[in-house]
Amino acid sequence: MAGLTLRDVRKAYGTVAVIHGVDLAIADGEFIVFVGPSGCGKSTLLRIIAGLEDVTGGEIAIDGHDVTRVPASDRGLAMVFQSYALYPHMTVYQNMAFALENMGLARAEIDARVRRAAGMLRLSDYLERKPKALSGGQRQRVAIGRAIVRDPKIFLLDEPLSNLDAELRVATRKELAALHAEIGGTMIYVTHDQVEAMTMADRIVVLRGGRIEQVGTPLDLYNRPDNLFVAGFIGSPRMNLLPVQVVSPGLVRVGEAGEPIKVATGPLATGASATLGVRPEHITLADGAADLTTTIDIVEQLGGDTYFYASAPGLPQITVRQNGQALRGRGETLPVRFEPAHLHLFDAEGAAVRPGV
Amino acid sequence: MKPIQLLRARRRNGHWHWTDIAAYAYLGLGVVLMFGPVMWLVLSSFKTQASLLEFPPSLLPLSQQEVRVEGFPQPLPLFAATLDNGERRELAQIRRIGLIAQMVDPADPKRQYRVPTARLAPVRHLSFVTSNYTEPLQKFAFTRYLWNSVFVTTIATLITLLINSMAAYALSIYEFRGKTIAMLMVIGTLMIPITIILVPVYLVITKLGLVNSLWAVILPGAATPTGVFLLRQYMLTLPRDLIEAARMDKASEWQIYWRIVMPLAAPALAVLAIFSIMWRWNEFLWPLAVLTRSESFTLQIGLNAFQGELQTQWNYLLAMTVVSLVPVALVFVFLQRFIATGIANTGMK
User: Fold this and answer.
1) pLDDT at B349
2) In this complex, do A103 and B250 lie within 8 Å of one another by their Cβ atoms?
3) Which domains does chain A have, with CATH numbers?
4) For burial by CB atoms within 10 Å, which of A39, A162, A200, B232 has the most?
5) Residue B185 C-alpha, separation from nearest chain A C-alpha, in angstroms
6) How far apart are CA A330 and CA B157, in angstroms?
């Protein structure tokens, strides 16, 4: 097991740069999730770490050793591919044993390792089957098994759950987290699904356009997004982002004619445009004085929760989450209040405005 | 589907649509056109030299019946003769003088007849002249030719598969400068027929001292552009993830090639193997040029040797042609399913 350091890693295909200098330190045993929209470079970054892509610049170090020019086969990492990439002509056993044979281990040792991994992944009954004869979930477990038999320094997982159906995905997600707890390896996991990122990660790396937007624990990112992108990307349903104008220090106005709302405006000048972020669960239904009066467009009753999708003139649709079963119908007015402790303010460039900054 | 069901297949069960009839007629014509000559060859290979040259020719290997008649040392040919009184009898011919034949009744050797040859019809029966096969195989080193052909075909096919797959692996899996140029040049050689390079290649072979050695036949054609192209196209369809997974699994390039790519390219390799076997087995011009001593002849050259300047031994030629056809036909029968799947999977996916 090992830590990993990336220093100003850059990658360009011809003149098109796709990774613009990534710095990242991953500690031994951490479960790191790279998350971002498609095309953000997260898979490329993973392949660079794996050694399947060369870097154009920068340095990669595993356990302090520079491996930038070391070929993939000698880095001692294991990768789980999105397509699983199981060798179709080999049985499950042979698939898992292949890497061990290449490492030159003794037959008895290979057998012991494969059977141990198979037991851990509930594959013992399928060792003689070809991948074709397995279900999607089983194939996925073989792909993971192939990685863990090698006892690699770092596990790399490239969207390993994206080919599974929703139910299996949730189940496998938990298994993976349990597996990480059990074997304790350093894992780097790539996904575009922020729910996967939130549920599994020790730390999340949010990427966009080949740059790191923010690194932090899931709750860090949720509670203190550094910028508009992270604020919008993390959390489901999305954070409500409303255009506001600073009316005076510590006071902003939503839209044209809303009530002034108290929020730390930091260095923003009076009259500056900004964006106010507030999560759906941090909006309460107002009895008396409302911050904003909206009209309900759609009501979603989930039983435990109720979601209102409401609109106000000149504003994007606002999502409001209420615990329990709030009985309100379409077209009704919905006066709301924003919880002052959970407001986020972003300046015109999208960076978070924090008190005292 | 069982063959018998296949032969009775119709558009709708129990009904003859006109398209059924048209389809069967068309397919029947195809069978006759393609299978007819082969049938003729096989049947004729059992004929005597005499009945091969006979006019009108017969399809079946018929030969004239002969009888032993008391008082004559040699067996005599039997004819159905129409006598002057209109009676038809089977008579044996003693000799023939001009248009008149002197005949004898085998049942009663004392009675002889003089019959115009126009009223004689030979009595024939089905007989397979197996000596067409046994004699050349014993007398003319044909087993040697057969062995040479088998050797050349097997070794050349193995070398072809190995070399071509290695080239295809490099041209499909690796990225390197000049890759496209290399590929274009490989494909470009497709346009050069053997007749053009016959002389230069012959000179090279002579310098290497390989003339009259079977290696002279095997080596020059071992790397075929068709094979490289076929395998490359197939290998391009293999998922890149598999190769990268193998790389992550600490496999060396040779192991990736040998343990991952080769097994997965099996359908394309089977197609190339079939082609290579057929090319090599039927190869004629090049072996004819480099093999001059009879003990290094391949089958095709051996067959050619039957075609003398003055006389051609058609009966042997046909029989040995059948012998040379059998192995390829068997290979084809056993591997033909790969051709369909292999070609379907090669490139056009």
Assistant:
1) 33
2) yes
3) 4-232 (3.40.50.300), 238-353 (2.40.50.140)
4) B232
5) 26
6) 77
